[in-house]
Design goal:
By secondary structure, this protein is an alpha/beta fold. It is about 30% helix and about 25% strand. Bound molecules: malonyl-coenzyme A and adenosine monophosphate.
């Protein structure tokens, strides 16, 4: 096959007038119309000088055209780099520079701020707005609705997704055609997706969950999606009767459960509810079953690996676990000190190997070597154990990471901003329990001797530097940070001290 990812997910739907996207305004887009949009965009990209292997960075609102941009990149062999719409200009500059993107696509509202950056870095800047218009698609409309698909090998790069690290510097995870394709086909079969499915899609499409899990699985099965711009409780409740399946982060489930309109009747015809990206509390799982009769299927994955494990489709979906390794994925629990495999039931680092595991971090051979072993096992940074029935339990993280509403937040990145502020001697950023987001960000500041840091000014500085979801929901001034004998800040002590700060959640 000339381009396995394109041919299997997209090309196979050529000429089909079956619905692919049901939109919030009540209209629908067929597979054929979607492919034509993608082909036109592919022409626009190549016309602008992009070549196979070039990177295209996109910070665009969720729309059919934004999804078609992904398809266009796959068809033209361009590496797609989707970016969170919440990122600030400071954050975007790093991604564009680090990836060496040759084209940047943004909303018209962001054009003025990005233009000088794109120019300095030698990238072409195009716009794509939430309504599908913009300089990218306006031009594309004039192009033919068929595009000669660029041949690709399974090992060729298809996408970069940036993921932060413990040092605060984001790393571009390089995902190949085969990483994405193998996982999509495995999940389609494992979760029994068919052309009859209609997936309620309210996730963002700039992360693994919404793009590579939800969208690719739907494409691989020939089904359709109710494609909502974002999670909106009223819309979810209104449209659920038209869906057969839903995928979401735990916040989706807790928000649905809080609404009395979300009844057993509303969910009765649904075939499958999948949760992931953050831990689903066993309590939520149980409450959901009581309300609807459905057992949520929890799975475990990450940017670097797509999906690794899943609870079974048939058989017991065990609350508080993420199930078994997916077909083709090897998983082991190892000793942090020497990498030896630990006996069943012991807690250690989770390592995975399989066709789903990424190729490494873009231009960061040392970071790649530190996490991706030569034998192909990837050290996930998550801690877990396997129970006597083979279910994987995630019991913690070996990486300093906060997951808020399914978004990953690396404390170091925020601490670097806080430490830079006048009157601040040092800081520690921790995640504390939050009823809506699972965890939320708390910033602890130690002032310089005699100084009184201006917390409003500090909050303002975080607003310029960091995306909204990373902002500490509260800043507290404390005398000192607890340290162990090696001088390392003991965040576990801080987490224990402040664990009730946001529960019950109001912010
Ligand atoms: C929005 N805000 C958040 C936030 N989302 N703050 C912290 N954490 C979040 N996740 C901000 C908003 O900007 C807003 O700011 C305020 O918080 C309240 O917003 P809201 O209206 O309540 O939020 P909403 O827009 O409804 O979004 C919440 C959400 C959304 C949970 C629906 O964050 C979401 O769709 N999350 C999914 C993330 C995801 O796809 N993760 C997958 C990663 S892939 P203000 O200024 O108004 O106060 C991965 C691999 C895998 O992890 O295994 O899947
Ligand atoms: P990301 O880097 O956004 O891909 O996030 C991946 C991380 O999310 C994993 O390393 C886990 O820490 C976490 N994660 C994903 N799914 C689950 C889950 N079902 N339960 C607990 N943590 C999860």
């Amino acid at each position: 096959m000339p381009n396995p990812l394109y041919d299997t997910l997209f090309g196979c739907h050529a000429g089909k007038t079956t619905p692919f996207l049901y939109l919030a305004d009540g209209t629908a887009m067929t597979h054929a119309a979607f492919l034509a949009t993608a082909a036109r965009i592919a022409h626009a990209l190549t016309k602008a000088g992009l070549e196979p292997g070039d990177r295209l960075a996109a910070q665009v609102e969720k729309s059919p055209e934004a999804l078609a941009l992904y398809a266009a990149c796959v068809q033209a062999g361009i590496v797609f780099l989707p970016l969170n719409t919440a990122y600030t200009t400071d954050e975007l500059t790093y991604f564009i520079e680090n990836s060496g993107a040759r084209m940047v696509v943004c909303d018209a509202a962001g054009e003025a701020a990005l233009a000088p950056i794109a120019e300095r870095l030698g990238a072409t800047l195009k716009t794509l707005n939430a309504d599908g218009g913009g300089t990218l698609t306006d031009k594309a409309d004039a192009h033919p609705e068929a595009f000669p698909t660029t041949p690709r090998e399974p090992g060729d790069l298809a996408a970069f997704l940036y993921t932060s690290g413990t040092t605060g510097r984001s790393k571009g995870a390089m995902l190949t055609q085969d990483n994405l394709l193998s996982n999509a086909l495995t999940l389609r079969d494992h979760w029994r997706f068919t052309a009859d499915d209609v997936l309620l899609h309210a996730l963002p499409i700039f992360h693994t969950h919404g793009l590579f899990v939800a969208t690719n699985v739907t494409l691989a099965s020939g089904g359709a999606m109710i494609f909502l711009p974002k999670f909106d409780l009223d819309q979810m409740i209104a449209l659920m009767p038209k869906a057969t399946a839903m995928m979401g982060v735990p916040t989706f489930y807790t928000r649905l459960l809080e609404d009395p309109r979300f009844t057993r009747e509303l969910a009765t015809h649904m075939r499958l509810f999948v949760s992931g990206s953050a831990p689903l509390l066993a309590e939520t799982h149980i409450q959901f079953e009581r309300r609807t009769g459905h057992r949520i299927l929890e799975r475990y994955g990450m940017t670097e690996t797509n999906m690794n494990t899943s609870n079974p489709y048939d058989g017991e979906r065990r609350a508080g676990t993420v199930g078994f390794p997916l077909p083709g994925v090897e998983l082991k629990i190892t000793d942090q000190a020497n990498g030896d495999t630990l006996p069943e039931g012991e807690v250690g680092q989770i390592e995975v190997r399989g066709p789903n595991v990424f190729k490494g971090y873009w231009q960061m051979p040392e970071k790649t070597a530190a996490e991706l072993r030569e034998d192909g096992f990837f050290i996930t940074g998550d801690l877990g154990k396997i129970d006597e029935d083979g279910y994987l339990h995630i019991v913690g993280r070996n990486k300093d990471l906060i997951i808020s509403g399914g978004y990953n937040i690396y404390p170091k990145e925020i601490e670097l901003v806080l430490d830079d502020q006048p009157g601040v001697l040092e800081s520690a950023v921790i995640g504390v329990p939050h009823a809506d987001f699972g965890e939320t960000v708390l910033g602890l500041i130690v002032p310089e001797p005699g100084a009184t840091p201006d917390l409003d000014a500090i909050a303002e500085a975080t607003r310029t530097a960091l995306a909204r979801f990373k902002h500490p929901r509260k800043l507290l001034v404390i005398d000192s940070l607890p340290r162990n004998t090696m001088g390392k800040v003991q965040k576990n002590i801080l987490r224990d001290t402040y664990r009730e700060m946001f529960t019950p959640a109001t912010t």
